[in-house]
Amino acid sequence: MTKVHNFSAGPAILPAEVLQQASEACINFDNLNLSILEISHRSKNCIAMVDEAKDLVKELLGFKDGYQILFLGGGASMQFAMAPYNLLRTEGTAGYVNTGAWATKALKEANKIGKTLVVASSEDKNFNYIPKGYEIPTDLDYLHITSNNTIFGTQMKHFPKTSIPLVSDMSSDIFSRKIDGNDFSIIYAGAQKNMGPAGATMVAIREADLGKTSRKMLSMLDYQVHIKAESMYNTPPVFPIYVSMLTMRWLKKNGGIEAMEKLNQLKADTLYAEIDRNSMFKGTTAVEDRSNMNVTFVMNKPELEAEFDKLSKVANLSGLKGHRDVGGYRASIYNALPLESVNALIEVMQEFEKKSS
Amino acid sequence: MTKVHNFSAGPAILPAEVLQQASEACINFDNLNLSILEISHRSKNCIAMVDEAKDLVKELLGFKDGYQILFLGGGASMQFAMAPYNLLRTEGTAGYVNTGAWATKALKEANKIGKTLVVASSEDKNFNYIPKGYEIPTDLDYLHITSNNTIFGTQMKHFPKTSIPLVSDMSSDIFSRKIDGNDFSIIYAGAQKNMGPAGATMVAIREADLGKTSRKMLSMLDYQVHIKAESMYNTPPVFPIYVSMLTMRWLKKNGGIEAMEKLNQLKADTLYAEIDRNSMFKGTTAVEDRSNMNVTFVMNKPELEAEFDKLSKVANLSGLKGHRDVGGYRASIYNALPLESVNALIEVMQEFEKKSS
Question: Which of B8, B32, B240 sits opposite A199 (nearest CB)?
C-alpha cells in the first residue's frame, strides 16, 4: 500500500504499531480469546488496562500525589462546561485567556454557569498571537487557558504564573513537550490528537481544588462522582481508552516526552524554515507564538491553490486544508507524524515553487 | 483458539464478522490506506459512515419523518440527565416507572432538574416484576420507562399506552424485538449491549417534542444543538459509531429484527425451560415478565456455586456471574449470542445436576 502522509488536525495520525495492536485486540485482547470490544469494563483485564492508562498519564505529566485521572466521554467540549460547573462558585468569577475558537467556546459555556472575566484576548488580530504581559486578578476562582490553538496555529510557550488554580485545555499539544503537571489544577484533553482516537477525554484533577461550590450537581457532570468511582461511574469508552494507553506506552518506549519534544521541535523548525524561505507561502501567526503542532500557512497567490492541491494529492499528502477561519493550509505535525512526512510536504512546496515562479 | 461463550451483560458479545471488519478498519478504512482511528470526522468517508448508521437506526425502528438520530458520548447515564434537561418544564412534572437500578438512577437525575412523580414501581419486591394496570396522569411532561432491566432480568412486554411523550431507555434490548419507534418521543440506548462497543449512545428524538422548556442550556446537554450540527457538534466517538453501524448492517443482512426476535425468543424459551426443569436452579423474576435478553437465575443450594463455576469455566462459559443486587447467575443472551452458546450453558447445567443430585 502507498504510504499516506497524514496531516489531519484531529482525529489524527497514530503510530503504526499502535494501530496494529488495536487491530489485533479487536479479535483477541490479552489472550482472552475475546475482543476488547466485548468484555465487561468491570473485568480484571479491563480494569488493569484503565489503571495502566491512568498511571501512564501520571508518569508522563509528572504528577505528584493528590491528582486524579479520569477518562470521560463527551470530548473537550464537555469539559468546557464541567470545569466551571465544578470550580466556579455562585459568588465567584472565572478568568479566561481567549486565544481562539475553542477558548471562546469554553468561555461561552462558563458564562452560562457563572461570572467570567476575559483576562486577555487576541481576538483583535483574528487570534494570530498569544497575549502577554497581562495581569491576573488573584481573587478569581480559576484561570482557564488553551495551551495550543489547533485552528489558528499558535501555542503558549510559557504558562501564566499565578497563585489561583490554573485550568488548561491541552487537547492539541498534550504529551508533545515537557510540562510540570503540578502547576495545574485541571488539565483536560480530547484524545483524538496526540493521545488516541476520538471518544475519550483525559481529565487530570488536583482533588483538593474540588468541593468548593454549593451547586447541586448532575452526577455525570460531577468530577467527584467520577473520582469516587475510579473513572467507572458508568461504562467508560473502553476502546478509545485502550488505544490511548497503547499510544502512551509507545511514547514512553520511544524516549518519553523529552525525545518527543526534540523531534517535534525539529519537525516544526524544518517546516517553518521552508515556509519562510519559499516565495510562494507565508505563515499566518506571530513568529514567537508559532505552534509546534499545527503549522498554518497561506499562499501568496491564492489563485494557484488548486495547482498545489494537485501536487499534494499525487505525493499522498492528506489533511492539509486550512480551517475556514484562517484559510490556506494547516499541517498538523503531532507526535506520531514522522519527519519523513514533513520532508515529503517540503518537497511538494519546493516543486510547486519551481513550477509556479 | 477455543471458542468462548460470552454471556457478559455489557459490554457484550458482538458478531464475529463485525469484529473482523472492525479489526481491518483499524489498519485500512474504506480503502483510504488510513485507519478509521486517524481520519477526520469531517471527512467525506466518515460523514457517509455516520449517515449510514443513522439511516440504519431509522430503518430498524421504523421511524417516520420528524425523528432525528444522534450518537453521543457519555453513555445512557448522560441521557438520564439530558432527557429531563430538555423535556421537563420548570412548572411541569415528569413521570417515571421505576423497574430497577437504572430506572432509579434516571429518576434521581430528573429529581435534580425538576418535579417528578413515580407512576408505578416494583421496588417492593426487589424489582422482580413489571408493574401493570397503573394510571398515567395526562398532564405529565413525559413518562420515562426502562424497556428491559439488565440487572433484574425483567422486560416490558407491552409499552404503556398514553398520549403524553414516552421516553424509553432501551440500552439492553434495542433491536432485539419489533417495536414501532413512532410510539416514542425519545429512545436512547448505550451501544454496548445489542448495538456495538462502549463509548457511543444512540438517541432517537421526535424533534417536535423539543423546545418547550425555558431552561438556559449547556451546549453539550442540548439536543437541539446536536441536531443542528447533525450529531457532529463536537468530535463524535467515531470508532464506537462505526462498529455500531457494522452491527446494524449485520443485523439487516441476517433477516432484520423479525429474524432476530424469533431467534431471541427461541434462545430465551430454551434456557428458561431448562431453569424450570432443572432441580438445582430457579428463576428470579415473575414468569410473564422474564427478559429475553438477561436471564437471571439462582441456585437452590448456593453452597454449591463454586462447583458449578468450575464446570462453567471448563466449558468456556464467560460472564455468568449475577449482579450483586440479585446474586446467583445472569446469562445475557443478546442478538449476537448464538443458540449454540445457550445449549453449551444448558449442557453444563445438566451435567451439574447429575453430579450434585
Answer: B240
What's the CA dihedral at B258, B319, B316, B250 to 10 degrees?
Answer: 30
Which residue does chain B place closest to A22, by CA atoms? B26
The CA-to-CA distance between both ends of chain B, in Å, stands at 34
The distance of B320 to chain A (nearest Cα, Å) reads 11
Residue B1 confidence (pLDDT) above 90: no
Q: Which of B317, B304, B316, B320 is nearest to B352 (CA)?
A: B304
Tell me the count of A-B CB pairs closer than 8 A: 206
Residues B183, B166 contacting (CB under 8 angstroms): yes
Distance CA B292, CA B261 (A): 9
By CA distance, what is A334's nearest residue in B?
Answer: B38
Burial of B6 (0-12, 13-18, 19+ CB in 10 A): buried
CB contact under 8 A, B11 and A237: no
Residues 6+ apart with CB under 8 A from B103: B96, B97, B144, B145, B146, B149, B169
pLDDT attached to residue A1: 59
User: Residues of A with CB below 8 A from B113's CB?
Assistant: 218
What pTM value is reported for the model?
0.98
d(CA B94, CA B296): 30
What domains can be seen in chain A, in order of their start residue? 16-253 (3.40.640.10), 256-356 (3.90.1150.10)
Which whole number is the average pLDDT over B128-147? Answer: 98
Q: A51 vs A40, A47, A317, B199, B262, CA distance in Å? A: 15, 6, 37, 18, 41
| CB atoms B73 and A76 under 8 Å | no
Q: Where are the alpha helices (DSSP H) in chain B?
A: 16-25, 44-61, 75-87, 101-113, 223-228, 238-253, 256-277, 305-314, 339-356
Asked whether the beta carbons of A147 and A183 are under 8 A apart, the reply is no
The enclosing H or E element of A17 equals helix A16-25
Question: Which grid coordinates belong to A83?
Answer: 470545569
Distance from C-alpha of A67 to C-alpha of A65, rounded to nearest angstrom: 6
Backbone φ and ψ for B262, nearest 5 degrees, come out as -60, -45
The C-alpha cell that represents B120 in the structure block: 408505578
pLDDT tier at B3, thresholds 50, 70, 90:
confident
**In this predicted model, what pLDDT tens digit does every residue of A183-237 receive, in sequence order?**
999 999 999 999 999 999 999 999 999 999 999 999 999 999 999 999 999 999 9
User: Which residue in A10, A24, A108 is closest to B235 by CB distance?
Assistant: A10
Q: Is the pLDDT of residue A115 over 80?
A: yes
Backbone angles phi, psi at A196, to 5 degrees: 180, -155
Q: Which residues of A are catalytic?
A: 102, 169, 193
State the best of B17, B27, B37, B188 to mutate against chain A, taking most chain A CBs within 10 Å: B37
**CA B161, chain centre distance (Å):** 21
Tell me if B219 and A81 make a contact (CB, 8 A cut-off).
Answer: yes
ipTM: 0.97
The partner residue sitting opposite B235, judged by closest CB among A75, A112, A220, is A75
Is there a contact between A218 and B113 if contact means CB atoms under 8 Å apart?
yes
State the catalytic residues of B: 102, 169, 193
Residue B6 is nearest to which of A1, A28, A38, comparing CB atoms?
A38
Tally of helices (H runs) and strands (E runs) in chain B = 9, 14
Which residue from A111, A129, A112 is spatially nearest to A120, judged by alpha carbons?
A129
